[in-house]
Hints:
There is one protein chain. The protein is mainly beta. It is built from four helices and 24 strands. The longest helix is centred in the C-terminal third of the chain and has 6 residues, at about 340-345. Residues about 1-35 and about 35-45 have low confidence and may be disordered.
Amino acid sequence: MGHVPQAGGADAAERPLSxxxxxxxxxxxxxxxxxxxxxxxxxxxxxxxxxxxHAVPPGGYVWWYVDxxxxxxxxxxxxxxxxxxxxxxxxxxxxxxxxxxxxxxxVALYGPRARWSMTERREGALRRDATSFTLGPSALxxxxxxxxxxxxxxxxxxxxxxxGRVRLIPTAMNARAFALDAGGRHFWRxxxxxxxxxxxxxxPAQNWSGAGYLDMNWGAAPIERDxxxxxxxxxxxxxxxxxxxxxxxxxDGSDLSLALRFDAQGRLDEVAPPPRADLPRTLWRVPRRVxxxxxxTLREVRRLEDAPFYARAELRTxxxxxxxxxxxxxxxADRFAARWVKLLLPWxxxxxxx
Length: 354
């Protein structure tokens, strides 16, 4: 899961903080929501592929999220491909009537020669089927059980090119999707809770590999309508294991607290969530919290994104008795709903006329 506009410092120094297989599919519950096998035809790899045909109703959205951290600790990447771009001011101002007319690929490169882009495009730039998704000059495809992303974008604000290829090779896969709200309007599926990523960029020039992750979210209503905030994290643990935590405050007054642990074969256990701990507020004063076994051992390695309503960070943590290397995000949906925030977004999220 993950998204969105950068507006502040990346790569902050590390600091102490206070405070293969297929998962079983079938009916169940995730803290008040239901749980279901993911859709997707055989052309998308059966229930395991990302299925880029996913239908999006008016007012709705779907996104596919990739992240990766290099083995040497120097680089990181986030890619998010949207239909019905949930953070688009243009989609909002258009009444969210035509999600296919608001598509984009958010690219964030962290570390040396960092770059960031999130150019929105019109539906004429969209082509998709079960195994491929083209957004103007960039494209994603699911091929041989791997995700390949060809990137051809322009960074903001200086318009430097971002070109290259990212390959994500799952080491564990999951077919289950989880409802994030009691009304069944918002869903999330961790497609590959553990993966390897290979990054080969022509511009800026960099080649690296590391641990990665792939998921997708979809919904039939704006996020800020049903959530006040959420914190999400995914962590690579030892011996191919991984953990994912979702901690959200819903508009109906209930909470989502979901903790998933995957073994190296992709077998899934729902477990009791670890205790909460506060992370320092961001430069934009966004409050953040994380779930961890031991707040005393929690470390923020890098601040990756710092926006008025959103933050992403690289953490060292301890989960379920194991050391973990994590990507964490916070969304402040109340802040995002503010008019002044939407007026800022076009400076970071241009809209192309082709």
